[in-house]
Every structure is written in structure tokens, then in C-alpha cells.
Amino acid sequence: MVTIRTTADELLGEACAQADNRARFVRLGSRPADAESIAATSGARRPMVGGGRQVELRTAEEIEAIRAAALVARSAVDAALRSALIGTKPETLAAIAAGVVAAARAESALQVLPFDAVDGGDRPFPAACCVAVNERLVHAVPTDRPLQDGDVLTVDVAVRLGGWCADVADCVVVGRGNGRAVSMVQGCREMIEAAVSMIAPGVRWSRVASAMQAIAEVRSLGIVTKYAGHGVGRSLHEAPVAPCGLDEGFLERGDFTLLPDMVLSVEPTVVARPDGLKTIDGRGFAIGCELTADADGWTMCTRSGQPGCSVERTLLVTHRGCEVLDEEPTVASAAEFGRHGAVPAETN
């Protein structure tokens, strides 16, 4: 579940709430962190990072609580996508995901926490999860239109369990589809793979975003820049803001340095673009895809009418790199994708 980008001018400053000689959160300030010192120690008194008013650093117990919520969300997404067959209604997929969440004695975070409607109001989302089909891309309310061959489908589930939130999304092409749709889905997954491989203490988020943006450019994919990844914890949307592309405002006011025990929901959201249409401007910034509000008051659709998709993982910054919290630690590695088998092999 992406968070709306803001233009707040705050930058991270001094570390606060020291516990066991370790900062539990960091506040906004203006100077970038010294990457080497951050990588060497997690006990820095003044880590300079950015992207939100206050960034929480999680304890081991909190991380396990978020992991538990993330695994429920992952199970719900998987169950829905396994049922994503031609003729199935998106509202049916949402009901399947809701059943998995309820069986785990968890809650849909979208329905128990304030959420951003198109009109700017905060109220519960009208469904247990978002089910995006083709151009109905962001915060998509599930509809009763049966899925058709070639539809691009994203299921996005946000869970609250024991007071802790997690956010997971994945996408597939329904039926056989076509090579262009398949390439978009695979490109989106490559972007999240790149993020997982790069995340580590001391790395500036702009480097991660730049790597994801480069993949989108190669794949001729437009990036949705109005919405972005985010921190997650007690609330569904927390600091920092973690975009999957670069813009001037983020580099000036929002860039941040990754620290051990940060938990992020990273979510590249992309739109298919015709060959030859630029996705990056002359300064190296992403040209954001325009969205328009649907009449339901929640769903944001691509103005071009082109399909889009997203993949979202709940990620932990460890002392050596990154851990995917919505994967069982003893199962497949964090870089493994394509679990659903609904996307056929890429064709030339």
C-alpha cells in the first residue's frame, strides 16, 4: 500500500530516545549521514538520515511482530493470486484474502486504520484489500467485473496483527496474456529484486531508487511518482518515504541513509509505456505517470489508460544487508520471485 508523497521541508536531525546505548529513532535534520560510521556502529548518537519526521529503529521483539503480520499478508496475497483465473471477479479475490487474514486472527489495516480517500478524508477503505486490474492501479476498490485473458492484476494486502502492521503486494498476468504485459510484470519484480540486493546499512536511499529507476527505463516502464514506499510499524504508513525513482525534491529534502533495524515497505509501481516514449527527463529524474481519480472515491487510474502493476515487500535493514520479512526465514531466498506461476515465459 503506497503512501502519498508530500513536500515537507523537514530533514532528519539528532538521534533520540537512547536505549542500551542505541538510538531507537532518529529525527529530521539537514546533513547526510557518514556512511562508513553508520555501517561500523549502530550506536551513533547523531545519525543523519531523512525522509520523514521521525524514523523508528525496531527492537528484536518488534521486528518479529512485524514479521508475523507480514507472513499473514503474504499468505493472503498468495491465496488470492492462486485464484486469479479468467472469469473470477476481483471482489471474490478480495474475499479470499479477507478469509486468510481473519483465519490468522488478524485485521485488514485498511479497514481499522484511517486511510487516504481521493477527497483527502481519512476513513476506512471499503474492502479488505486492494485489487488493481489494468489501469485501475492505486488503492483500487475490487469490482465485480470478471477477469479476462491478458488482464494485469495486483493484489495488495495490509495487515494489522497484535498492533503491528505489514504491507505486501504482488502481481500476475491473467491467462496467457501477451509479451508486453509479461515484460512489465517481470520488470516490476526486477526492480524490487534490485532494491533487496542493494539495501544495507550506510546506503543512501537515492542509490536504491536510482537502480530501480534504471530498470524501469530499460523496460520502457513509467514510474508512478505521486505514491511511494514507506516505513511501517504501529501505523501502516510511517516515515521515511521510499520512492522507486528520483526527483529533485526528494534528493534535496527527503533522501536518507539506511540504518540497521529500519523496516520499510518498498513498492515499485509502474505503468506500460509505448516504445520511444521517455520515462526519464534530461536531468535523470523520473517522468511521473499521471493518475486520475475514479468515481468510487478511492481508486486512482492511469490517465493514459495503459495497464500498470506493483510489487511490495516488507523489508528489514539488517547489520549486513536486507531481510524480506514476508518470507519464511528458512524457505527460499529473498531474491526468488515468480512463485505463482501465472506469468508465462517472456517472449521476444
Main structural class? alpha+beta
The largest sheet is:
6 strands, antiparallel
Number of helices: 7
CATH class category: Alpha Beta
The value of Rg in angstroms is: 19 Å
User: What is the CATH architecture annotation?
Assistant: Alpha-Beta Complex
Provide the number of structural domains. Answer: 1
Provide the β-strand percentage band: 25-35%
Task: Indicate the percent of residues in helices.
Answer: 25-40%
Distance between the termini: 32 Å
Shape: globular
Looking at CATH, the homologous superfamily is Creatinase/methionine aminopeptidase superfamily
User: How many β strands by DSSP?
Assistant: 21
Question: Can you write the helix and strand succession as a string?
Answer: EEEHEHHEHEEEEEEHHEEEHEEEEEEE
Determine the CATH topology.
Creatine Amidinohydrolase
Tell me what the structure shows.
There is one protein chain. By secondary structure, this protein is α+β, with helices and mostly antiparallel strands. It has a single domain, classed as Creatine Amidinohydrolase (Alpha-Beta Complex), CATH 3.90.230. It has 7 helices and 21 strands. The strands form 6 sheets. Strands 1, 13, 14, 15, 20 and 21 form a 6-stranded antiparallel β-sheet that branches. Strand 17 and strand 18 form a beta hairpin.
